[in-house]
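DM from R.C. (forwarded with permission)

"hey, sorry to bug you on a friday — could you get me a structure for this? deadline for the figure draft is monday and I only need the backbone to look sensible"
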Amino acid sequence: MKKQEGSRRCLTVKVQPKAARQELIKIAENEYRARLTSAPEKGKANTELLELLADYLDVPVSCLRLVRGETSRIKIIELFEPPK
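My reply, with the result:
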């Protein structure tokens, strides 16, 4: 029996930390803009971003991984979608 694998895709997210309110806007197919209330210190904003994306995409946080941009405003997030 062959093991089914899920799909992977990369999302580009431009982040604005320390915003007045939390918001996620879809710009294009795999491109988003996020306003986060957390400050960009000790990974707080990155954690908030992953939780916000997981909620928006209706996937567990474990399906998301920060690939690039840990200290940058432009992030590359890998999304793993398990087989249905």
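R.C.: lifesaver. Residues 13-81 form a domain with the Conserved Hypothetical Protein Mth637; Chain: A; fold (CATH 3.30.1200.10).
me: no worries. The mean pLDDT is 92.
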